[in-house]
Amino acid sequence: MRWWWQPRKQHGRIGRQVTALVVTTAVLLAGTWVGASRIPTRWFGPAHPASAQAALPVDRVVWAWAGAVTTTSATVVAEAVRPARRARLVLTADQAGVARSTAAVPVGGDGIVRLRATGLRPDTAYRYVVEVDAIADHARGDGRFRTMPSGPASFTVAVGSCARTGSSGAVFDAIRAVEPLLYVSAGDLHYGNPARDDVTVFGDLYRQTLTSPAQAALYRSVPVAYVWDDHDYGPNDADAAAPTRPAARAAYSAYVPHYPQPEPGGAVYQAFTIGRVRFVLTDNRSERTGTSLLGARQLAWLQRELVTAARGHAVVVWVNPDPWIAAPAGGADDWGGYPQERRVLADTIAAARIDNLVMISGDAHMVALDDGSHSGYSGAGYPGFPVLQAGALDRPGSVKGGPYSHGTFPGGGQFGTITITDSATSRVGVELTGRTWRSTILVSYRTTFPAPSTPPKPGTG
């Protein structure tokens, strides 16, 4: 039996999905099997070819990833091979080559250790090595990140969503190849669909994800910012009533190198600044009820954040894990199911005259792009804003929501980028792209925004 993979193509603005797998019956009858572990299958296996990345040997560290990177600090979370007592980071700046280390801290009974480096230089590339009980791990414990710029700067951020559990797809190599300053996981880091209030279940799913060769190579090379959607938080369409909510939040606090949360240990929404751009990430699951997608506290925080950020930054990027553009529909698992709350936010944007907002979303297994033609939902008819749907990393393609001015591209092996061009002039450029594992650009959109009259304060805010 032989499976052939073909890229999905766009068919008009509706973006109808084209079947991507064809079974060759003659080969099937001949009983020939070619590359079963590396060729996509329709529903349960990979949605695009696997990476050739090999797993590194296990020495002192099982996995490590970096995040919460600011102008002067970064956090690395790692799992040490047990038994282990203490761990620390040894960091080397590329320009200086002088090593510095963090204080050694105790390793948890589960092998998890959180290591925070402070006093770093802005806009500087660092190499880090995790030391466990004074022994450096130069395989899985060896990684890199770059601290954030403190002023005007040009950079690229990659965004992806919806990967099957343990995926080692070639798409992760393609993300690494664009050399982003940051990788944003906009939900469904895995498709574990946990159903029990058990932190160890989440720990096992993080381990499967972070030890996958292609993903591990990405996370050792690029820092992350991550918020969940349903399949990595609980069962399909999970909300605040999910039995996994306490365990999901506890595991996130333990395993993820995240930016400060307004509700420590609670909902995982957060915000941070890169140069003159503010990134705002919302938790669209753990506060969701039948009447509110965000919950009252997060909604109020988001309204304040959008207004304040728009005034002090050149660009505001809202990482909103679920599709925003959708027709009102009771019970829908996107913003179409919450039209009143969407109107509240749209009216907030209109009242503050926010005109420098960009949205990036996941959940839908497609790349899609709207130039603002269909994203405005205020009662006053205020214009919309650009929206990029960035998926699916490694799940079968599907279309959700819409319409989108630049069309839909359903499929697996896909991701998005946002590139900021800021040369300290009066305007800042933004380019949104949707890409494939082949490094093909499916769709792109460019715009500019006026720079703020006063510079944003550095840090995560």
In total, how many domains does the architecture comprise? 2
Biggest sheet strand order reads: 14-15-16-17-19-18-20
Got a strand count? 23
Q: Label the overall shape.
A: globular
Determine the fraction of residues in helical runs and give it as a percent range: 10-25%
**Number of helical elements:** 7
**Could you say which structural class the secondary elements and strand pairing correspond to?**
alpha+beta
What is the annotated CATH architecture of the largest domain? 4-Layer Sandwich
CATH superfamily descriptor of the largest domain: Alkaline phosphatase D (PhoD)
Radius of gyration: 21 Å
As residue ranges, the low-confidence spans are 1-42
Largest sheet: 7 strands, mixed
Distance between termini?
55 Å
Query: H/E order of the elements?
Result: EEHEEEEEEEEEHEHHEHEEHEHEEEEEEE
According to CATH, what is the class of the largest domain?
A: Alpha Beta
What is the arithmetic mean of pLDDT? Answer: 91
User: In the CATH scheme, what's the topology name of the largest domain?
Assistant: Purple Acid Phosphatase, chain A, domain 2
Strand content: 25-35%
Protein model, in words:
With 461 residues, the chain is α+β, with helices and mostly antiparallel strands. It folds into 2 domains: 61-146, Immunoglobulin-like (Sandwich); 155-450, 4-Layer Sandwich (Purple Acid Phosphatase, chain A, domain 2), CATH 3.60.21. Helices cover 16% and strands 29% of the residues. It is built from 7 helices and 23 strands. The protein has a 7-stranded mixed beta sheet, with helices on one face. Strands 13-12-11-21-22-23 form a 6-stranded mixed beta sheet. 53% of the residues are buried. Mean pLDDT is 91; it is low at 1-42.
